């Protein structure tokens, strides 16, 4: 039998977490605006998850290997407001702690350290008039540039100007 938003949330057979999730889904279906989830408090130093530890170990075995980097480049046609881009990227980084996290070693163990939000530095290269090979090489070089897991940042942004009103934006 299908539940309606007016039905009470069942107590039997559901964990507290499942009841909370069900209540959220039902409130959303009823058109109510759900509250934004809150983050669990942490001390700033948190142990790595097993997946993070695996990637950290791979980085220690093969430093600078870009196999696990994710780099995206796209063309932006028309005028580009660099301050608006910095603001938008900074908002994304402020909202997602993992983009502000580094992985230093303390007491011979890797840890996560979440840093406070800060404006994202935006690197800018003017390659106006450069040939396609030069531009492609610049994009590839940025995509292959290693991250320093211990010191960060682990999120980078770069704009390559290829003409007055044409840019390549990389994150």
Largest sheet: 4 strands, antiparallel
Radius of gyration, in Å, reads: 22 Å
Structural class by sheet pairing and helices: alpha+beta
How much β-strand is present in the residues? 15-25%
Which series of helices and strands comes N to C? HEHEHEEEEHEE
Round the mean pLDDT to the nearest integer and report it. Answer: 87
- Shape call: extended
SS summary, helix count: 4
Q: What does the oligomeric state look like here?
A: single chain
Low-confidence stretches: none
Distance between the termini: 47 Å
Helix fraction, binned, reads: 25-40%
- How many β-strand runs? 8
Structure description:
- With 171 residues, the chain is of the alpha+beta class.
- Helices cover 31% and strands 20% of the residues.
- It has helices at residues 16-29, 50-61, 82-95, 132-144; strands spanning 45-47, 73-77, 101-102, 105-106, 109-114, 122-126, 157-163, 166-170.
- A hairpin with a 2-residue loop joins strand 4 (105-106) and strand 5.
Give the gist of this structure.
The protein is of the alpha+beta class. It is 31% helix and 20% strand.
Topology:
Blueprint: H1 16-29, E1 45-47, H2 50-61, E2 73-77, H3 82-95, E3 101-102, E4 105-106, E5 109-114, E6 122-126, H4 132-144, E7 157-163, E8 166-170
Which structural traits does this protein have?
171 residues; alpha+beta
